[in-house]
Each structure stands twice: as structure tokens, then as C-alpha cells.
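Continuing the series of single-chain predictions for the mutant panel. This is the parent chain; the variants come on the following pages.
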Amino acid sequence: MTTSGLSLPAIPTRIVWDESMMGYNFGPNHPMSPLRLDLTARLAKELGIFDLPQVSLTDSFVASDSQLARVHLPEYVAAVRDVSRNPGQVNEPLGLGTEDDPAFEGMHEASARLFGGSLAAAEAVLSGEALHAVNFSGGMHHAAAGKASGFCIYNDAAAAVDRFLAAGYTRVLYIDVDAHHGDGTQSIFWNDPRVMTISLHETGLSLFPGTGFANEAGGPDAPGTAVNVALPPGTSDAGWLRAFHAVVPQLTGAFEPQVIISQHGCDGHRDDPLSNLRLSVDTQRQAALSISGLADQFSEGRWVATGGGGYNVASVVPRSWALLLAVAANHRMPVTTPVPAAWRDYVRERHGIDTPQAMGDGVDMWWRSWEVGYDPNDDIDRTVMATRKEIFPLHGLDPWFD
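Parent structure:
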């Protein structure tokens, strides 16, 4: 076990985790394997993150129907319960029993437990018991109010957002860095001016769910509160970081959130089989650092983070989310930190997979700041400018200069 890292002020951090969360299991041939959760928890424990004095762990719980109904239609919850009891059936209009979201016995309870995990994380921050909280099992951002989609049954990220709204918060910022558009969360808060959703993802022209373009900007009562950066396939670290820093800090400053909720799907990694982005674990860690910094600057540090997509279950997901946990605990673990040999041996002996020796991918983290100028011949710059032109004027910002 190692706890190597820089000495920084300890931040009370709540991590929601227990092995029952692996019950969210669509079967052995499904891309979303619960193995990714097990290996993440094992790596975090081996790295000493769970044992840091500022970190407390808590179990999740199965959310009640009334809690689920805060963001989901009651008839949809009833339908999930039905297929959960009778997993042989298909409800195509509600996305249940499909290839992406096959029904399984106990699906309602397993999905409601992930939902409960993000409620528990939000409650820890609301109560003041923690400043940061993480539910890496969550991030089911495709689930809409009345439909399952994209491996997501109940939208726990939306649950966390709603919990702060119910407590009286009037400016909640949701940032989604998954390779896939955070369409379900966007749709749930589409016309709510109290919530801004920002999603950076691979363009819907080449990737599921086919949405998330710059002109999706919010409902009639909430113009400019849905923000989408639709990145071209093949976007790598420098381009992704340029896009993030050309949009997210500026809008965060304009919106002045009281809390930040973030979704950290790591399926944008270059080795992930389900997207065409070319990111590194290093950039995924940098995204977490940047979001933590924005929470410090604008929301008195209040930050709730979830997991999300991620389908290279041994070599990518555990490293990315263990680094997220370290960032949340303000335990700056360098990307050069060795992956513990005991963990690598376990993965090799148990699952036959050789995993990387370092926590990071050893990439060059340099990126070109937006302030150096806009290149109309660059695909990423055109994407960023489309978003800035659509959204920035609605917040009193200049799309060319701010």
C-alpha cells in the first residue's frame, strides 16, 4: 500500500462505495461490466486513498419510489419494477429489455442503489459533513425522466442536482466530461434556469446518442443553460483541454454556481472501445483538477462527482477514477505514481490482463490557450466558436474575447 502524494490541506471527502453496487450488472457480455467498480475500489484501497484521514466511506442505499419520482415519472419507475420482476419481457418504448439495457432480475433495486449513492454524496455536502463527495459507481447520464437509454436506467447525476434544488439552491452547475453527450441530464433540466448543464463530448454525428450540438441551448424559460461542445472524432489531449478551457471557466464565472456536480465518464480514453476520442488518463485527471479548482473559486468548494462511462475496465477505468478520488481528497497523486504491484498481480492472476505500470499515460500536457487566437481552419476551434457564439452572449460574454 502506498499513500505517496504531495502534502496539501486536507479536504473532508465522502466516498460512496460498497460491494452491493456491483449488482448493477447487465450480464457477462455487456460492455458495462461491474468489474470496473471492483477494480477501482481495490486500486483506491491499495493506493491508500480510502485510508486518508480526511476520507470517509459510506454505503449506498436503495432510493425510494418517492425519491426516484423527483426526476423520473412514476409510471416509468413502475415499469422498471415490472421488468425487474419479469426480466424476460421487453418494453421498447421505455428502453427496457433492449440490447443496450437488457432487463435482469433485481434491476430496479440495483439501479435505485446507484441513484441512492449520488443522493448520499449530495447529502454529505449539504450537511457540511464533507466538502467533496464522490460516487464513482454513478453517472448514469443517459436516463431520461421516462426512458432508459445507453446502459442507464435511473439518472443518479440528476438526483444529485435535484437534491440541492430541493434544499433551496438556485444555481447548480452540472459538468459532464463523458465521451457521450449527457442527454438525459440535459433533458431533465432543459427548462430550469436554476441549472446549467455543460457537456463536452464526441459529436453526435459520429457517436451515440446523436445529440448535443451547440444549438441545443435550453428551454424557453432557461436560454443559455444547456451548453454543448461537440468535439470531432480523434480529438486528443491538447484539443480537448483547449476546448474545456475556452468554454467551462468562462461560463462558470458567469453563472456563479453554489455547487458543482460533475460526471467523469472516462470512455474518451484512447484505449476505450466505445468512442473515437484519443484522451489520456492524464487529461482525465486534469479535468478533475480543473473542476475542483472551479468549485474552490465559485462554490466555496462544494463539489459532488460521479463516474459514468468507461469500458476498458482494467487498464483505464480504475486508474482514471482512483485519480479522481485522489483529486477529490486534495491528495495530489502524481501521474508518475507507480500502480501498486499487488494490484497489478491481482488483475493479471484473476483476469489475465496486464495493466500499466504508472497511474498516468506519460503524455505531454501542453495545450494552446484560446487567448492566442481562433483558427477557422481548425475543426476543434470551429466547434468551440459555435458553442461560444450560441451561449456566451446570453450571459453577457463576448464569444470572441472572453
